[in-house]
Task: structure prediction
Amino acid sequence: MSTSAAAGAGANDTPLRRELANAIRALSMDAVQAANSGHPGAPMGMADIAEVLWRDFLRHNPANPAWPDRDRFVLSNGHGSMLLYSLLHLSGYDLPLDELKRFRQLGSKTPGHPEYGHAPGVETTTGPLGQGLANAVGMALAERMLAAQFNRDGHVIVDHHTYVCAGDGCLMEGISHEACSLAGTLGLGKLVVLYDDNRISIDGDVTGWFTDDTAARFRAYGWQVIEKVDGHDAAAIARAIEAARADTGRPSLICCRTVIGYGSPNKAGKAAAHGAPLGASEVSAAREQLGWAHEAFTVPPAHYAAWDARGKGVALEAEWQRRFDAYAAAHPALAAEFTRRVQGALPAAWPQVATDAVAALQATDAANATRKSSQLTLELLGPALPEFVGGSADLTESNLTHWKGSRAVSRDDASGNYVNYGVREFGMAALMNGLALHGGFIPYGGTFLVFSDYARNAIRMAALMGLRSIYVLTHDSIGLGEDGPTHQPVEHANSLRVIPNCTVWRPCDGAETAAAWVAAVECTTGPSCLLLTRQGVPPQPRDARQLADIRRGGYVLLEPAGEPEAIVIATGSEVGLAVAAATALNGKGRRIRVVSMPSGDVFLAQDAAYREAVLPAAVRRRIAIEAGSPDYWYRFVGLDGDVIGLSSFGASAPAGALFEAYGLTAQAVETRIASYLQG
Ligand SMILES: Cc1ncc(C[n+]2csc(CCOP(=O)(O)OP(=O)(O)O)c2C)c(N)n1
Ligand SMILES: [Mg+2]
Result:
């Protein structure tokens, strides 16, 4: 093929386009072969679709993967990572061939599944099926909201599409229902999903386990569905994408019939192509069948030239920059605000707003529930943070995630700052990640702590990606009372604490709640979970030093006269009990220090001198108190210590009766500490 023929491949020129798609197929099978591990089937099956999408439609700039108005591309079937790596490499991103040769190797930019922050152009980490699709819904929502907030008459600076590749697995996963149902309701018209309908998943032909009428399902959500597209016919694919883009009121699903492992004579159409190297002889046979006469990892210059998106990308961004400059001239303040927002920087007034909020909550002497203190904090932080996008999984009045400035986002008006996610915890958390990934927003969303399990893998993904997603998890113990054990979290605080890079706060009163919010907003390297009570808790007095030290995760809240003989460590609603019990015992001549530990992980990240000052190694008599499973606390209390916790599931009864029954009253705690000190 001559250079000009390849470069000039047109929409109806399928054989030439096929050659360009074959570059993806060859790179994918070669990389999987070299790694002796990976998934060649999906990239080979989706290569024709990807070629059309990337060469004809995707507006991006390989030289600047951070261009705010680029189209987003999400490979939700992340096992097909070589499809994405091939596309990035061929288009001219900074992903050299050597990185493809190091597919799946330690320290490469090409891990087994696409990971955010590794290769440029990877918009989100995918692999847990269905979740990339939900992230993409969040990105499309972000685009819609940012456009509503910033575009002005004659000045459109936010206007891009979100394209997704998704497989059978993504659509079998329940989260696809949660996310796509909401996308339909919100009418996210710039979301285009290309479904790799190859009828194969790992166990074989999906006829035995996946016979939904997917088209009907998505139509029922309010999507435009473009059915029966031949995923190996470039012209048909292009027509479908054009139709998808033309419908601006509804998200679109393009059902592409494809053959997994297309080009492999013996494995195409079979589950054998899904997740294992084709094998050297089959790779040769596929080369033969595809007419790809080039050595392993060799792409001819003409193909590179036809794929190269750099020139077009620079021009696209330059054209946008001109529009942005005109916008900046007409609306300088808005333009500066847009720049701040997409960079994720906090407003100049933030430090003062944050300090004032913590001080204001410290000054509140009501025995508010911490969920209420959280709402009071939002009232103070919210006006300063237009990037806040709040929400709840249908528990707004319980989570108290709304504040006076909250305005719901709807199909017709996306200028608000609050998403009613409906009863969709997993969908909410994954959408929040999409909002955070897109840029321009700090998402927070609420549900009951006990249902954090439903959202858990998305919380984990936020931690893995280092996203600033904030989870407001209320009703954080048996203190929620009558709803009983189905609603009473026991192991949840600990199970969130064991997720690496996930910060968990369980504040004890208003000031700690405000400080936790401030820390969460300022934490740009990972998500935060705010564990909040349903029931009222007493406010604690603090001096300026103690107030400032809340953000260190743990600090001395109550100090006895003289050297402490024992330390009681408590969190959240149990801090009040610890203070009452220690005060009573100190009145009887004991010397007990109370350490409030709203965030063990933040405390553990402090320097050794600080940790020693709060928890001196010499004081070995220690008791931790938390109305949850005790395990986490043993590392703080040591071998000589004790933990007052809860190892059963709770029960349905008024909160007071439950705290009594489980030995979590000031009197019971005092008795327990006294007998421990005697033992
Ligand atoms: C949540 C989740 N469950 C299970 C897996 C393991 N897994 C990876 S691919 C796959 C099958 C996916 O089938 P499909 O999307 O049709 O991919 P294809 O075989 O067509 O490439 C499974 C079960 C996963 N990655 N994520
Ligand atoms: Mg499949």
